[in-house]
Amino acid sequence: MTPEITPELSADSAPVAEEPTPRLRVLAAMSGGVDSAVAAALAVEAGYDVTGVHMALSRQPGTLRTGSRGCCTVEDAFDARRVCDLLGIPFYVWDFSAEFVEDVVADFLSEYSAGRTPNPCLRCNEKIKFAALLDRALALGFDAVATGHHVKIIDGVLHRSVDEAKDQSYVLAVLTKDQLAHSMFPLGSQNKDWVRAEAERRGFSVAKKPDSYDICFIPDGDTRGYLTEKLGVKTGSVVDVETGEVLAQHEGTFGYTIGQRKGLNLGRPAADGRPRYVLDIEPVSGTVTVGSAERLDISVITGENPVFSTGVEPSFPMRTVIQVRAHGGTVGGSADLVDGRVRVTLDEPVRGIAPGQTLVLYDVGNEYVIGSATIIRAG
Amino acid sequence: MTYLDHAATTPVLPAVVAAMTEAMSYTGNASSLHTSGRDARRRIEEARERIAAALGARPSEVLFTSGGTESDNLAVAGIFRARRAADPRRTRILVSGTEHHAVLDVVEHLASDEGATISWLEVDDFGRVHADTLAAAIAENPADVALATVMWANNEVGTVNPVRELSAVAHHHGIPLHTDAVQAVGQVPVDFAASGADALTLTGHKLGGPSGVGVLLLRRDVAVQPLMYGGGQERGIRSGTFDVAGIRGLAVAVDTAVSGLTEHAAYLTGLRDELIAGIVELIPDAVLSGDPGQSAVDDGPSRLPGNVHLRFPGCEGDSLLMLLDARGIECSTGSACTAGVARPSHVLLAMGVPEDEARGALRFSLGHTSTPADVAAVLAAIEPVVARARRAAMAGTRRR
User: Fold this and answer.
1) What is the pLDDT of residue B341?
2) If you placed Cys at B224, which of A27, B78, B351, B375 could pair as Cys (CB 3.0 to 4.6 Å)?
3) CATH number of B2-9+260-399: 3.40.50.720, 3.40.50.920, 3.40.50.2300, 3.90.1150.10?
């Protein structure tokens, strides 16, 4: 099976004269997981001159999650190195810990303190993998960066993976046309089972390594505990939207996400006995508003800082398919551009949309990404 | 392939391979009492005498170990524990900030787990520890010092320390001095007795011998507690069955390195200075780290003959390393690794080099297989490599 690797190269990135080899030079970003290992293998097989690089994202690797689930442990660097040994390609570890702390961890904390819900993986793709790493790779003479993301690029346009469950087009929808032009995603035409079988066939020790789901810099998965430790206790009230009654005190609005039901610790049920959800977070006053589920239903979303990954602004208004979270469903709707902001009207309401999340616009066939924007208002 | 990382490890000498191959064909545990055992023992003792003779030591001062790290740990922890057992006030360790991690980490372990206190000996801009610095540190309280440890020559920047003067200062107060001479043996004259040091570390693989074999030279009057317990070999200080082949190989390597030292050092010094001058001519803002090597320390050279350590402002050392590696030139950023990540070198930071500048460091280390062609290869590659590494560093700065 031939992998899909068709990077589009701009003129200034052509191999420079001092390079004796005409082969395309590809930097394979290797997390130590099975996807990036197989992606690197496919790039090697496609005939590219491949170098493996593991990004070190923490100054103290030991403080991160250990074992197979992290993205930046010593063990992961070791796993990536062993794959490169088998592929017979050079391997290096590049330190992006300063960039990671500044652009991903600090952003994560400031977004939460502002009452928003960030997606750090998406930010890492935008600022680290396809920015700091890509820039450095291009400057050092590479032509493209290859990763193990499950997406396809067809004619420069970001498409969903054939494996719907593993599709990662949402977390890459923040990339610009230029970033995509220097990216390779060899796995986009394969499903995860094929990737694991391929890793097994090639004798990669990572073939059975579990997928990572959690945030890599929160080792135990306890986001609220992490935020409390980093941001400190900032008490406030949990208020009923109907009655205005204070139902409980909390230790920080960052412990809440719009749409959250579990862990509210309200002590007593609502008068009507129905479950209550977080409807609104007001970080300045520290007020968390709760109420019934139907109040979460959102039909209109506004997003700022739009990125159109095709490089061309689509002709608004337009029909589109919208996705608002990494592992969420999609809904049809129409989008318009108003004062530089994307305004989306959904065909049917979606529950629990939080400012800070990213809205991604797909074509009406739900196959490729048109663009993305950061949600500033829902409802 | 241009191999310029001899300070990491240097190719094994053919004579060493021959000696080890021969030794491996014999059976016999050197601790056995029969003929084969005695034969093995004889080979060990011949090697011990040969090493002692080459380094100005007595055979009974030669303790075989598994290498530099073990020798450093044995000397530092062993002497610390023995000295404190004899007098519980002795808890202070005097150590320079430019030591190898095999010294630094055991010192820090003794501080965190065994009640040691650390007095850091400051170094000058070349990374050298001066005798009056040691004297001042001791003077704070001579009675509470367990030991002092200062390397003979620095592995990163090549600066040679005045071990003879340092020993004299320590001995004035009855304090033992350990020196890590892993980089020094075979590059500069090392005479254990003349140096006055009480303990001296060396290892095989830096001088054309095998890896996994080293020596701690230890004066007979220095008490040391063992790290390992067992069969009581090496005066009970270092138990474990002798590696006859490794020890034979080590003896050949030490002997060869020391007997050819003058000629070898002169040859390396010539190549070194040619490489430094050539690079600085092409990259005028490149900065040589460490002693320039034009003076004398303890009647020997002030810089290791094979060491070239340069900082390239505006570059990341690991970019330079990768670009050179891709062109078949192997060198080092000279700094310690965690998961293979280059950290700014603790040696450069101790010398007062700013962190940004320390990140652009590269070490080329010459050895017995080095030729003028190696120097020419670096000079042919360095300009485009530095230019490209600068662009890469600027790409990062621009976005930030």
Assistant:
1) 63
2) B78
3) 3.90.1150.10
Copy the structure tokens of residue B240.
Answer: 């474990």
Burial of A16: CB neighbours in 10 Å, binned 0-12, 13-18, 19+: exposed
pLDDT at B318 over 70: yes
Percent pLDDT > 90 in chain B is: 94
Do residue A94 and residue B318 have CB atoms under 8 angstroms apart? Answer: yes
Preceding amide of B344 cis, omega within 30: no
Q: How far apart are CA B187 and CA B198, in angstroms?
A: 21
- Amino acid letter, B52: A
**Facing B319 at nearest CB: one of A90, A99, A140:** A140
CA of B396, closest CA in chain A: separation in Å? 6
**Nearest CA-CA partner of A94 in B272, B317, B179:** B317
Number of Cβ atoms within 10 Å of the Cβ of A325: 18
HEC profile of A117-160: CCCHHHHHHHHHHHHHHHHHHHHCCCCEEECCCCEEEECCEEEE
Yes or no, beta carbons of A141 and B319 under 8 Å apart: no
Interface list for chain A against chain B, based on CB atoms closer than 8 Å? 18, 51, 54, 56, 61, 73-74, 77-78, 81, 90, 92-95, 97, 99, 102, 131-132, 135-136, 138-141
Q: Tell me the CB-side half-sphere exposure of residue A344, using CA atoms within 13 A.
A: 37
- Domains of chain A with bracketed CATH: 22-208 (3.40.50.620), 233-291 (2.30.30.280), 297-378 (2.40.30.10)
ipTM over 0.95: no
* Kind and range of the H or E run holding B338: strand B337-338
Round to whole Å and give the CA distance between B260 and B246.
Answer: 21
CB contact under 8 A, A136 and B392: yes
Band (pLDDT 50/70/90 cuts) for residue B329 is very high
| Chain A CB contacts of B395 below 8 Å | 135-136, 138-139
Beta carbons of B319 and A138 less than 8 Å apart:
no
Q: Where are the domains of chain B?
A: 2-9+260-399, 14-258
- Chain B partners of A93 at a C-beta cutoff of 8 Å? 339-341
Tokens of A72: 């930046």
Beta carbons within 8 Å of A75's beta carbon, 6+ residues apart: A32, A66, A67, A68
**Secondary structure percentages of chain A, helix, strand, coil, to 5:** 30, 30, 45
Average pLDDT of the residues in B48-75: 98
How far apart are the C-alpha atoms of B57 and B258, rounded to whole Å? 13
* Model confidence pTM above 0.80: yes
Beta carbons of A331 and A346 less than 8 angstroms apart? yes
DSSP secondary structure letter of residue B228: S
Helix (H) or strand (E) holding A369: strand A369-378
pLDDT < 50: residue spans in chain A: 1-17, 19, 61-72
Secondary structure element (H or E) that encloses residue B208, with its range? none
Which residues of A participate in catalysis according to the annotation? Answer: 124, 216
Q: Do A56 and B341 touch (CB under 8 A)?
A: yes
Q: Average model confidence (pLDDT) for chain B?
A: 95
Decide yes or no: CATH 3.40.50.1100 for domain B14-258. Answer: no
Calculate what percentage of chain B has a pLDDT beyond 70.
97
- Residue A355 φ then ψ, to 5°: -55, 145
Token representation of residue B352: 């007062």
Inform me whether the pLDDT recorded for B143 exceeds 80: yes
Q: Which residues of B75-102 are buried (b: 16+ CB within 10 A; e: fewer)?
A: bbbbbbbbbbeeeeebbbbbbbbbbbeb
